């Protein structure tokens, strides 16, 4: 009976990596890959025949929902990888079974950052100093992160403690951070994340004006929405406050109770003052903006 | 034809265009007074009629404009008795631009008249202000002259606009030509009475404001201040409105609609 290895989980990059590592560690002379169900017939045909030389083979089956027929040869290894999702492959004949849930990125317990550090260890480089920055740059996409780590590992000597300066020259800024990310982080009450996004936006150019404009717009939209409810307006609220109905439903209504009208008015005043200060070339607007981001985000935490 | 200040209009002609050719004659004249009194229009009309086009130049704003007029001043007049350089908004020239003019103003070549139009002489660099040899201060025009001017335009005479213009003929012209200023005035009155909602769309002239200093922006500021005069005793209403004016005036790249919303919010607090 051939060896059966099952891999499931929502983190498709980890599933894929594990499947290839298993294939390598089996020391098989040939590896065949099939996409199920499209290549099911080919797999059945190939797996039922055997090498004359008696060498071992690995069959990697991608997108498996049900375990297919297994070849008789004991030398063969079948790696079944489930499509990304919550469905977990189970079979009594399985030699090993792996499950990779989505890595969590909580503020106080960030699995992605821990994974980055482990990947660094795998490549024999120390990423402790830049793990946070890598996370902010590439988000939770492990595939992108892996590419960045590979690149860094190829450019620095083994055992190096990678510094932010070394990493900055190598990292591709693939995920474009916009002020919207800052606003999303504020609305989630993730102050540290909002500040990290602010730092990232500001690191290459002074984007204070852009960020202030975005925040002003968001605060004004929230104020208008609150007023429309206070006035008990009937009809098309989205039209009356000048936004698309989708934006109203998905972004504004879900954030309606995060701040009071008074808080929003104060915030609008502060943002307008910062806007004027920034346009007059006052460098302190940058710090004022940071403080306003913290204030708004902490208010969300208080409300929650 | 700009009404009022007839004596000053004649003086400008006498000072800058010599009737008898006197050798080594040069002068620096400043036309000062409120914006919209028509100082620049009067000067342009005068020099376009009486000076050969090759001998008259209006300076473009910026350092390049300053350099251009310095080059222009290096040659003798072609078809007139003098060459004339007109510098509008001299008080709004940047410091480098004013610096570039200093040398020219200090020792202008012969047969050159330099006319500076400055609405706020306090904003001129002291070094530049000290080189002005004659200053013609323009006054606001009377109500009769305003009506006379209003009738001369090919538009119906508006009593409201005459009142809003407050003796500034060019402001009247902008108000009646552009439209939308009545709406602005009414909106400001409503804001002061706390009758405007945050979600209400700002007046058209606010939405259409272009960045940078321009006549429409200055006209908007004038009209808002005029409307605000009625509520000067109500600080909680007039202060946010005057702050809005200040933003329009000093931060010309600021988003006027957002600051309008802030003004409404502040009157409500």
Brief overview, please?
The complex is a heterodimer of chains A (304) and B (269). Helices cover 52% and strands 10% of the residues of chain A.
Textual characterization of the structure:
The complex is a heterodimer of chains A (304) and B (269). By secondary structure, chain A is of the alpha/beta class. Chain A folds into 3 domains: 3-100, Rossmann fold (3-Layer(aba) Sandwich), CATH 3.40.50; 111-168, Helicase, Ruva Protein, domain 3, CATH 1.10.8; 179-303, Zinc Finger, Delta Prime, domain 3 (Up-down Bundle), CATH 1.20.272. Chain A is 52% helix and 10% strand. Chain A is built from 13 helices and 5 strands. Chain A has helices at 12-25, 40-48, 111-122, 131-138, 142-155, 164-168, 179-187, 191-202, 208-230, 237-241, 245-252, 261-279, 284-303; strands at 3-9, 30-35, 57-62, 77-81, 94-100. Chain A has a 5-stranded parallel β-sheet, with helices on both faces. In chain A, α8 (191-202) packs antiparallel against α13. The longest helix of chain A is centred in the C-terminal third of the chain and has 23 residues, at 208-230. The radius of gyration of chain A is 26 Å and the shape is elongated. By secondary structure, chain B is an alpha/beta fold. Chain B has 2 domains: 6-137, 3-Layer(aba) Sandwich (Rossmann fold); 179-268. Chain B is 50% helix and 10% strand. A 5-stranded parallel β-sheet of chain B has the order 2-3-4-1-5, with helices on one face. In chain B, α3 (63-72) links the parallel β2 and β3. The longest helix of chain B is centred in the last third of the chain and has 16 residues, at 235-250. Chain B is elongated, with a radius of gyration of 21 Å. The model of chain B has no long low-confidence stretch (mean pLDDT 87). Chains A and B meet through α9 and α12 of A and α13 of B.
């Amino acid at each position: 009976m051939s060896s059966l290895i099952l891999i499931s989980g929502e983190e498709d990059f980890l599933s894929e990596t594990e499947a290839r590592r298993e294939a390598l560690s089996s020391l098989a002379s040939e590896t065949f890959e099939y996409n199920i169900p499209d290549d099911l017939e080919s797999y059945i045909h190939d797996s039922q025949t055997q090498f004359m030389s008696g060498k071992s083979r690995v069959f990697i089956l991608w997108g498996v929902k049900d375990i297919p027929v297994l070849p008789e040869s004991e030398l063969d290894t079948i790696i079944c990888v489930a499509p990304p999702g919550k469905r977990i492959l189970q079979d009594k004949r399985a030699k090993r079974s792996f499950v990779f849930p989505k890595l969590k990125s909580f503020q106080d317990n960030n699995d992605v950052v821990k994974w980055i550090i482990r990947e660094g260890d795998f490549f024999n480089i120390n990423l402790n100093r830049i793990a946070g920055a890598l996370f902010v740059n590439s988000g939770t996409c492990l595939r992108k992160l892996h590419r960045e780590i590979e690149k860094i590992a190829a450019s620095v000597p083994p055992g190096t403690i990678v510094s932010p300066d070394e990493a900055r020259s190598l990292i591709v800024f693939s995920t474009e951070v916009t002020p919207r990310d800052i606003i999303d982080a504020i609305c989630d009450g993730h102050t540290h994340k909002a500040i990290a996004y602010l730092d990232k936006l500001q690191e290459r150019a002074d984007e204070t004006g852009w960020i202030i404009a975005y925040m002003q717009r968001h605060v004004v939209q929230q104020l208008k929405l609150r007023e429309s409810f206070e006035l008990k307006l009937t009809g098309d609220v989205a039209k009356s406050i000048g936004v698309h109905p989708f934006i109203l439903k998905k972004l504004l209504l879900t954030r309606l109770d995060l701040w009071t009208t008074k808080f929003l008015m104060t915030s609008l005043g502060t943002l307008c003052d910062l806007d004027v200060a920034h346009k007059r070339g006052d460098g302190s607007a940058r710090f004022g903006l940071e403080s306003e981001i913290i204030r708004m985000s902490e208010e969300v935490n208080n409300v929650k | 034809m700009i009404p009022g200040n007839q004596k000053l209009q004649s003086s400008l002609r006498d000072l800058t265009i010599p009737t008898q050719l006197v050798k080594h004659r040069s002068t620096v004249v400043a036309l000062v007074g409120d914006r919209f009194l028509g100082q620049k229009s009067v000067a342009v009309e005068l020099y376009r009629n009486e000076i050969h086009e090759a001998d008259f130049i209006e300076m473009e704003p910026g350092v390049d404009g300053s350099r251009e007029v310095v080059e222009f001043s290096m040659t003798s007049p072609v078809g007139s008795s003098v060459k004339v350089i007109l510098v509008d908004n001299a008080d709004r020239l940047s410091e480098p631009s004013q610096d570039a003019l200093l040398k020219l103003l200090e020792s202008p070549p012969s047969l050159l008249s330099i006319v500076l139009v400055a609405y706020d002489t306090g904003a001129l660099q002291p070094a530049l202000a000290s080189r002005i040899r004659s200053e013609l201060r323009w006054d606001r025009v009377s109500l009769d002259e305003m009506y006379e001017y209003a009738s001369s335009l090919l538009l119906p005479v508006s009593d409201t606009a005459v009142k809003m213009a407050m003796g500034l003929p060019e402001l009247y012209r902008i108000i009646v030509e552009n439209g939308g200023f009545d709406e602005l005035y009414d909106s400001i009155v409503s804001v002061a009475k706390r009758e405007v909602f945050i979600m209400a769309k700002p007046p058209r002239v606010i939405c259409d404001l272009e960045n940078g200093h321009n006549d429409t922006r200055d006209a908007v500021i004038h009209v808002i201040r005029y409307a605000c005069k009625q509520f000067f005793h109500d600080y909680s209403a007039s202060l946010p409105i005057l702050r809005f004016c200040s933003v329009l005036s000093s931060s010309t790249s600021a988003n006027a609609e957002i600051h309008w919303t802030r003004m409404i919010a502040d009157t409500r607090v």
